[in-house]
Amino acid sequence: MNTNLTPYALAIHGGAGTILPQHLTPELEIEYLNGLKNALLAGKTILENNGTAIDAVNAAIVWLEDCPLFNAGKGSVYTHEGGHEMDACIMDGATLASGAVTGVQGVRNPIRAAREVMLHSDHILLAGKGAEDFCKSRKVPFAPEGYFGTAFRMSQYREALMTDTIALDHSITKFNKPGFGEGNKFGTVGAVARDVFGNLAAGTSTGGMTNKKYGRVGDSPIVGAGTYANNDSCAVSCTGHGEVFITNAVAFDVHALMNYKGLSLEDAANEVIMKKLAKSDPESGGLIALGKEGQPVQVFNTAGMYRAWLGVDGSVNCRIYQ
Amino acid sequence: MNTNLTPYALAIHGGAGTILPQHLTPELEIEYLNGLKNALLAGKTILENNGTAIDAVNAAIVWLEDCPLFNAGKGSVYTHEGGHEMDACIMDGATLASGAVTGVQGVRNPIRAAREVMLHSDHILLAGKGAEDFCKSRKVPFAPEGYFGTAFRMSQYREALMTDTIALDHSITKFNKPGFGEGNKFGTVGAVARDVFGNLAAGTSTGGMTNKKYGRVGDSPIVGAGTYANNDSCAVSCTGHGEVFITNAVAFDVHALMNYKGLSLEDAANEVIMKKLAKSDPESGGLIALGKEGQPVQVFNTAGMYRAWLGVDGSVNCRIYQ
Q: What does the pLDDT look like over A80-97, one tens digit per residue?
């Protein structure tokens, strides 16, 4: 490992989309940057005390889930029925163990639920009420439905409902116009970490799409699509148009391009996000990733991605735009 | 394309597992072989009349779902709650479009539901009641709960419940001992097809695991894990220990090994099933696959896999054991 680097690394994201300076007031921009910084520091504290990559990913995502600005946990968008159905996934690059939940309601921190599935279940992905029952059996904290909503999300929901009433179709773009400070099409949070033991981990959490119907499952809770970690190659957390990420098995493909074609992490991430995905959807999203060594990679084909990472000297870096 | 071949190709499977001659009476063996043959012929009829690969996959899987011998549609295993929660996925190798459902109850042919999602939704994967609502909106046929059960599945369920009561844990192996004629650990059906236009398609359908709890989602409905099709490389349908197939993104990995390392379909399938998966679980399952040309490939690390395929002369071949 390069001795100029801290012995650990961490990066997080808070979603990608058509985030442009004119969409954010200066005050809101500061709020977002502070949110990212605090989430990063929550993970850094774990790593600098020789904690595990899994613990750091968990801590950073719990912070982002608790922050109402991001579409995960508190601040999750409303479903068509006016509730909150959340997804999360976590994966340990050392063991390839993973856990995930989809469509859970009332679980305060879905990433904790995913971790419980990883640690205390023979399964990887649990859905809906069954997943909630599992969480209860493991004493994963729940919160009342009102905890998750915010006035801003309610306004998005009302607008989406009205649009839907008129349009009577379910196109993704229609419900997600920019201008709310979040490029809210791809609201997701995620983290990737490398600990002092050299182990990698990745996690992703999301409240899904505003006004989503029919129990839609995106890429976030799917190992190999939105989330993947393998000590042999990389840890990846994605954010974007979930269907495009599922079709292209984005997170696993970064790993495959590194392992089979010998690409660097940066080249592999660029190949997938900037070349392959552009064929389906030129503004489909992005990812953060970490390799066995070196700094985090951030690649996105959208106008912006909320993101933060530790510099080689352990410093905090937060960015929103390209 | 090799002119010795029919201009189309088709293969199906009915699950893999510890299927040994001593587990099947001669009468039951004939029933299984007849079931496979008829499903294959249902798909062949489509292909020889210049139908599409997607239609052939759909037709073969509908037949397997309707046959009570296989764990999909009618004949699906019982969940812990005594119901049937089914998963299915279909993918079009020409367009990379796909559709899938998980945890649906009462849908007579889950593969039809998956196809409706592919054709008439902006999404790929729909779960639970939301998926059922979508099916109703698309007039996908439903059947009463009693339609799906069989006396044999009920006996498996009762035994699993009793074991569970004693063991109070949720290990996968405990509920699935061999001896029921199905190596029932990995009850799944699937099909891969190449049509006269050179397009590939793949589909998979399953009733899941006997006594399954907590809304567990296996690999079958996950694009890139249990099902994948891409005209650039191959069409793949898997059957096995779902969690191992998700972790290894098996179906996509076959594609990646072909595209990035230049492996043949057969070598890629062997690399994944016989080498990689063996590290996690030496008897984890198998797959059927088709390339842009040539005959189907069948690879499994279990004692048996119910399977059938068209020979180069269009003949029907059915096998159970290695």
A: 888 999 999 999 999 999
